[in-house]
Every structure is written in structure tokens, then in C-alpha cells.
Design brief:
The longest helix has 19 residues, at 821-839. The chain is globular, with a radius of gyration of 30 Å. Helices cover 28% and strands 15% of the residues. A hairpin with a 2-residue loop joins strand 31 (911-913) and strand 32 (916-918). Strands 7-6-26-25-24-8-9-23 form an eight-stranded mixed beta sheet. A six-stranded mixed beta sheet has the order 18-17-14-13-20-19. Strands 35-37-36-39-34-38 form a six-stranded mixed beta sheet. The two termini are 30 Å apart. With 1233 residues, it is an alpha/beta fold.
Length: 1233
Amino acid sequence: MSNPGTGEVDGEITDALLKTRRFLTHADISDDMRTIHKEGGREGDVFYRDRWSHDKIVRSTHGVNCTGSCSWKVYVKDGIITWETQETDYPSVGPDSPEYEPRGCPRGAAFSWYTYSPTRVRFPYARRVLLEMYREAKARLGDPVLAFAEISEDPQKRTRYQSGRGKGGLVRTSWEEALEITAAAQVNTIKKYGPDRIVGFSPIPAMSMASHASGARYTSLLGGSMVSFYDWYADLPIASPQIWGDQTDVPESADWWNAAYLIMWGSNIPVTRTPDSHFMTESRYNGTKVVVVSPDYADNTKFADTWMAAHPGTDGALAMAMGHVVLKEFYVDKQVPRFIEYSKAYSDLPNLVSLKEREPGVYVPDRFITAADLGDTTEQANLKTVVIDEATDELAVPNGSLGFRYTESGVGKWNLDLGDIDPLLSVYKDQTSESVALALPRFDIGQESSEGGGIMQRGVPVRHVAGRLVTTVYDLMLASYGVKRDGLPGEWPGSYDDVTQPYTPAWQEEITSGPAATVTRVAPESAASADRSACRSMITLGAGTNHWFHSDETYRAIIALVTLTGCQGVNGGGWAHYVGQEKCRPYTGWAQLASAGDWQRPPRQMAGTAFFYSATDQFRYDNMGAQELASPLGTGLFEGMSMSDCVAKSVRMGWMPSYPTFNRNPLKICDDAVEAGETPQDYVVSQLRSGDLEFAADDPDAAENWPRVMTVWRANLLGSSSKGNEYFLRHLLGTNNQVRADETPPEQRPRDVRWRDEAPIGKLDLLASIDFRMTSTGIFSDILFPAATWYEKEDLNTTDMHPFIHAFTPAIDPPWETASDYDTFVALSRVFSRLARQHLGVRKDLVAVPLLHDTPGETKQPGGVVRDWKLGECEPIPGVTMPNLAVVERDYGQIAAKMTALGPNVENLGTTVKGITLKSVREVERLKEINGTVKGGIADGRPRLDQAKHACEVILALSGTTNGRVAVAGFKQLEERTGQRLADLAEDNEGKQIRFTDTQSSPQSVITSWEWSGSEHGGRRYSPFTINVERLKPWHTLTGRQHYFLDHDWMAELGEWLPAYRPPLGMSRLFGPPTSGFDGALEVTVRYLTPHSKWSIHSEYQDNLFMLSLSRGGPDIWMSNIDAAKAGIKDNDWIESSNRNGVVVARAVVTHRMPEGTVYMYHAKDRLIDVPKAESSGKRGGIHNSLTRLLMKPSHFIGGYAQLSYGFNYYGPTGNQRDEVTVIRRRSQEVEY
């Protein structure tokens, strides 16, 4: 229909079709046949009336990480989506609160644009050069697997297609061919290297659970590794598991209305939580006082009664100063009964901690005193913590600690019931109390030479217990915060005005620039409000505070403000952390489906940041050794260790997973064990001892240890979350990049991890992605599958912002050749099975699993004592001093059969979540009726799972939040362990089971379940930990209470026993000052932040006319008018921002709303539209993450000890990127593309 070779769409055929229009309408048609003119009366309006007419309305929602989870009416006319509007049938919140509707925002109201947009991926695509080589090899060899093996193993052919990534060259292909290439690559990888070299990445299952589960299930059935996302996004607040043993549980937005005092701290609610922001604004009419902490004049700042403008990255200093005031005025100067009683019952403040002499007369904190220290020899006495009973002055072991959770003797005692025990908060009586000098870390000094800071000396009262000198956590807290009591030795602040001693209001003013007077007003104001309002003071936290390197310490300091005032576990109070749509409410069903645990266990689930740190070779550029972070109070545990050394140590001790695991195919390990006449477990131990087998983490650049095939779906990894993007391009993909950093010099390279002189360029054999729009990930992919949008498939959606479950319902069939994620992975499983029958067959696979949280594995390394079997400090014992080792049989020819049916483990082994195991026999029988059963084969008689709606029914049936019988059964099992009444929270809904069809008719309210810590029982608003506080269920921590003190060896080495202020990393000192490479150029050095995207957040993206109009037509960087003037930059000028990691070209947005010294580049902006070449490199400017690089913190690798144990998306290193600095200059305004 076009003129060949001209690029024009017009032609003779087009003209002929247009001319026929005159026979179909009475309207006037223009001479060029391109417009229709209608005149007069109602006839003139018919075009507009037709625009809004429709044939049907379909309910659906948006599968995006905006946490909105809004229900939408999608209007369809003649099979085409015309527009969408908000649904208005949410269940009522009740008479005393605003309602959830109308729920939605302009971004969501414009989503249907993507259905027919120019960026829509309509057909399968493949990289042309790869496709041509594959077709030739397959025609010659006759086997897809052999064909791909030849191409990927030939260095020249491999380089040809890898170096073409991101440079165009994608051509249309058939579904059959795209699936075959992908499956062939996976079969070849399993055959040669092992299944753990296959990787899947897809974030936030709550956005679209069946879509996420489909790919995760397929990957897990193969034995591949699913990479975590919450920690990778740096949305995971490590402080949450450290404090509560939970990750992450927060109030629904309607509970903001119940707050009497609300602090928005790093959480810009009107921009990032638009559909819910009305609860915040309306709460002000309810008498709520609103305080905002933000460095810039953000959109939420205008709602503030008080604005606290702390410098970026100094939030911890502000929080510690506020804590100083709260402790002094509400615990020492006077004691508020409400706060004292709460702290005794629900926190570790009364728990005894031993002290260790560091030098004569000067001590440091050591460990929690346990019953074992008192001579108790019963099971797990070393995990039962100790207090002093104030009434008797005797030592006591209260219920609820970890030692009661898994033991037979602990049945009925894992609870917070103190009985007759009245825990003593402090061993201080008066100024005559025995005391000692205590050395504590301070990180506001010494930064010019080390990140480890310095030392301050204060004093604590002490007692002698079992030959040890002890004090309480509360006494340690007062010493750390600098709250003086008479008679105690050390250096103490003289008053709030003391600028020399942490952590006074005046001291923080020197760091944050926030007035001390504001701190001395706001801190007691919020605490007093908590006292008067029955603990209804709330702090909402977000990415603004969480994306920093030391965010864990910052969060511990901020959260202390709500725990010290008794606000956690109370409606209208506590923390509220919003950085992603993380709450997959029907968790049990999703987890079972996604892990393929119904057929085989355990799955491989990998810590995302650690994976990408090694896979993209960012460790080769990291000269910040672990010792750099150690406090002067440390004992040298990190001496000579790089961060990659710490990763390797963590892996071999069973703390953190590592996939690939060993430097040998895990299938071959099982074969070799049989040949050696040993069990695979014994064989691995003996091979590790001899050195004939090694962990892959010890040599991540060895070819046998590379990840080989990666599949990305529901994500834009290379355009959004790829921290250190240019390193991805160089080392993982092997294509053009703008890395400017030098590799780590020899003297700073890893001590234990092998360093290869030649860095790998292009580790991945194949990158496949699934998306409905063209993104940076798509243009770098080798295979690109076209996905259905949210209005074209069936799925489920929930959020932490409200207690409802939504359905995706197809308004139209997937257009062109698009298909849902679910259908794509089902199709892929069938092709894979066909190829795998010949090449793989039935094999045994050895899976290494870390010591997991919420399992007995978290009891295996009590006290957090580090003992490394490789150094001879202990024996290598699987599941104790090293990872668990499990053997899984995989019939690779039956992957499709297992993919499309629910396996028997649901009844035989049960579903396990948070330590509760249920065998859902009744649910499986019901699912057979709903979904139908499989006829024949290994899945004969099992419930079908070949369609997304089947998966949705399984998710809903197996989860307590959506099946009342499951909720009651789980609570009853928990009652046996706790001895507390719990089942009544769900018994009124025992007969309720939410079906997928129910969610399609209207939003469905969830049921209170043991899967989460809060309660909706009786129509109350969800708030986390209300069950802990009201029903005395312990937190999943060592003490069973909320923690201020952490006693692991590595925490002590960092000086992070307690909340503290740690400043942003000194990037210029660590890595050298950033330079543009243009000598004499006028430039300015600034801190570089990448906040959640302004206006568009996630759902609207950035590549449509609305968002491009709101920005500057492409990438932009927001900077202050002061910084702009320094570099001669005017608004809308083209600028270049560069540092050691890469280069960004963007327009300057110059505004007085930005603070001096800081710039923002809102994420996520692809490098697809209006991205010119950089003058410094001659290549296209990068994305927001081109200026970032991963930085790892050793305390995030810890495992095997209580709440400090690994769990998928629960604990692990974060992909933080807020500490970066960059240099900006005005470039030539003549740009080239």
C-alpha cells in the first residue's frame, strides 16, 4: 500500500480506498480526501458524539509500580479501546472517613494511548545478525540446540551479534522461531553449564500476579534463578527486617486519616501516591498536623504546617537529634507511663547486653545475654534472651524469643505475655550506681581519612551477671543518643545548644542546616501528640530517605521516633514506607505458583544486587574495601577484604544465595557423586575441602560461572533500574558503553576472589525480553516478544495502599501478534520440552539454599558469631555452617506438563509461608471443579493451569487473605505455637472464598490473615503489627520484640549496634573528583539524585506527547539557579553531566525550588527519544543510571541469625545510588544525533 523504497504510506491503493469513502457518507470530503466536513444542527456534532459512544464497558486495572491499584472502566467501540474512566464502586471505608473513590489519576486515564501508540511492540523481533546465523546453522546441523551452541561458542560470531545490541538491527520473525531460539539457548545452557546459569528478572508481583508467576514458574521448573527486585530497586528498607523481622508491612492509605500527627519524610505523597493523597490533605481538616522533611520545595511541601529542609543524605542526623529530645524529655526528665509500658512489653530496651573490655577500663557493647549464659542447657537456650524483673530484682527469661519458636518446649510460649515479669528498663538507680566508660562510634568526624568515623566515650550503669558485666539496651541507647544522667562517666552534651557532641539539636544544625529550634519544637510536639492521642503519630517514609548507602542506619533512627512513643502497631500511628507496590496480599498462592513448589522444591531465588554486582563486573571498579567502612572500634574482621570477598564469604557460610553456585554444572555434580559412591551432599563437602570444587562467587569472571541466558518481563531493566548501566552494557551485554572509570589498582583488588587480567566483554549468550512497548531493554535484547497490555489479559492486582483485590479483564483481544506474558511462557514451555527430551531427559540437580528466615535455618548461627569453615574456624556442615544442599529431580521433557497443571506437593508437603505449613486438600478438590482437570500424562487428574484465569483461581484459593478457611486454619496453627487467641480475627469470614469472577465484578476486600501482621477485622483500617501489639504475637526477631540493638559480629565491626548517623559516602575521596574531561570548561560539581519520576511516576512512562510536553521533550536535569549560574547555564540549555561511570546529555531545568549543590534527574527516561551524542564520548548520552554504580555494604550480606537471615526480597544488599556526585557543564547547543 506504499510506494516501495520511498518510505511513504500513500500510493495508488491508498488513494483508491479513500475515494470509496464518498459512497459511504453524505458529508463533504476535501479535495485531498483527507478530511470530512459536517455542517448544521445535530449533524455537525455527530463526530463528537461518535467519539464518546461505545459498545461495552470492561473493568480492568493497571499493572504498574505506582501503588495505585485503581479500578478502571475501559470503553470499547467496534473492537477498539476509545477511553477509560475511574470506577466508583469501591467498598465503603465507613462513616467516619473519606472514601477511596474516586480513585485514579490523569496518568492512568491516558494509558490506553499505549494500546495503539507508535512505541507498541506488535510482533516478535530478533536480532538480524543472530537470526541469519541461526537459520544457516540450523539448516546445516538440523538441530536448534546444536545451532545455537555453535553460534554462542564461536568467538567471532558471538562478538558479532553481541556488539550489535542497542544499535537497531531488530527484524520481525515468527513466534515459532523466536520461541525456538530462546528455548534452544536455555537447553544448551543447562546441558553445558547448568540450569543455575539461566536467569529470570521480573519485579513487583503485586502489579500482575499471574503474569509474574508465569515466568517465575517456568524459570523455577528449569532450575533457573529468579533474581530479586525489592532490594535491587533499593526500595527494600533493610532496617525493617533488622527491627521487626518483617519486610515490608505498612498501613493502607486510609489510615493516614487516623493520624493525629503526620510527618512525610522522603515520601512525596501527592506525586508518587496521587490516588491516595487526598487522605493526607483531608486529614488536615481532621485536625492532623503535617510536617514535611525534604531538601527541595517538593509538591507535598505546600501542605506542610512545618517544613524541615535537611541537606540531602543528612536525614539520619535530624532523626537522631529528634530522638535525643524524645528520650530526654519523655524518658529521663519525666517518664510517660504509656511509652514506658510499651517499651517494656514490645521492644528489646529492657534486654540485657554484655559488655566487652576494649582497653583497660573502657568497654564496648558485646551480645545479648541469653539463658545459656545463665547455665540453662535446654534446647536453644542460647536464643532465649534475658531481662531483670523489676519486682523481684531477679533475672528472668520472658516468653517470645527465638528459642521458643521452633522447639518442642516452646509450644504455647512463643508469645509476648510477660506474666508476672515486670522488665527493668534501666539498671541505673542514682548517681552512685556502678558504671563503666563506654566507647561508641561517631561518624560525623574522621571522614577526611575514612568512612569509619571516630570514637566518643560515654558511660553506662552496669550489673554483674554470670561473670559478665551487663547493661540494658535502654542504657546503651541513652549513652549513644547523648542523654546525660548524673554520675555516669564520659563526654556528654551540656545542653541542646552544644554543637560539639552528638546528637543534640544544635549539633544536627551544623550538618543538616535545619534550625535547632525547629527540632526542639517538632520532636516533643510529635511525642506529646502521641501521648494525648493514644499513640497516633505517623511517619511516612520513601525513596528520598531509602536510596542512600547508609539508609539502614537512617531508617533505624527515624523508626525509633515512632517505637519510642508507642506508635507502632496502632491505627493512625507508626511507620508508613511507600516506595513500591510490594504487598502481594494473596501471598501464599502466588508464592506457591511462582516458585513451582507444587512440583519441586526448593527454588533458586537470588539476591539481585549481589547478582548484578558480579555479573556486570562492577566489582572490578570498586576500590572501596570493607575495612573502609569499619569503625575504629572494630577488631579487624574486614582487614584486606574487598566487597566481593565479603560476598564470597557470605555465600560459603550459608548467609546469602549465589547462583550460579559452583564452578561446575550442578547436574554433573550429582552424576559425579553417584560415580564416586557418595551422596551429593557428602561429595560436595569433600570436593570443597580438597579444592576440586569451588563456589562460583570465588571466580565470577570464569566463563563457566557466567550467567548465560536472561529473560526480562514486566520490567525495563536497562532503561530503569540498571544501577551502573554502562557496566551492564560493557560486561554483561558486550556492546557500546561509556564507562570512564579505571579498574581497581592491584593493591586494592580482592584478596580471596580471583582477579582475571582480561575482563569479560559480553557474558550473556542471549537476552530475551517481553514488553508491550519499545524500551531500552527491548533495543538491547536479542529476542523481543510482543506483550499484551493491561487491558488485554486476565490477571490479579493488589497494593499496600488499600485492602482490595482487583482483576485485569481483557477489554479487547491482544491485537496484532501480541500475547499475554502467561501465554508466552506456556508456549515457551512446550517448545522447551520438545527440545529438552532429546538433549536433557531426566536429571538430578543439586540446589544450594542459604539459611533462610522464618525457618529453623535462622537458629543455626546463634550470637551472630562469624565462623568460616574455609579458614578452619569450624567444620563445613550443610545447613549449619554452609548452605543447605538439596537434590531435585527434573524431568526436562515434562516442563510443559508441569507448567500447565497444579502439582501434588500442595497436599503432600503443604504450602509454607512465615513458618506456617498448611495442606490444602479441600482447596485442590475445589480447584479441580473450577479449572477442570488434565487428561493423561504425569499431571493426569490435576487442576489445570494452562490459562491465566486458572492461575488466578489458584492464587486466590491457596491464600488466607482471599480464602477464609485457609486464614482460620493458619491462625489456629499459630495459636498452638503462641498460646494466644487469634483465629477469631478470621472466623467471621471462614466461609468466604474470593473467586476470580468476584474480582472482575468489583473490588474485593481481603480477609485478615496470618500472612500479614495487621488486621482488617471488623472493618478497621489496616495497620501493621496490630496483631503483635493486641494479640501478643511476637515479631520474627531474636527477642520476639522490636529491636534497637543488633549484636552480629559484622554489625559490631561497622559500629552499628544501635541507630546512628552515618553521612553520605565521600565519593570524591573514595573514587576521585568527577571530571568532564574538558580542561578549563566552566563546570559545577553537585550531588546527583534520581527520584521517582515527576508527573509520570511509572504508569505513564516518558515517551508520549503528554509527558514529553511536561518535560523538555526528552531527558532533563533539574538544578538550582545558583548552581546554574556558576556554570553559565540557562534554563533549557543542553548540558552534559559526567563522572567515572558515564555521561548524560540533557536539557537543564533551572529553578529556585532546587537546593544548591544538588541536581535531580527523574527516572525513568529511556535513551529512545531526543538523546543527542555526548561531546565527551561521541556516543549517545546515557540514561539516569549511566552516572551510577553499585556500592555494597557488608552488613546486608549477613545471614543465619534470627531476623538477620536471608529471604527472597526480605534481606540482602540494596542497589542504592543516592550518594553519587557528578560534574555538569554547558555544552555546545548544536547537537547531533
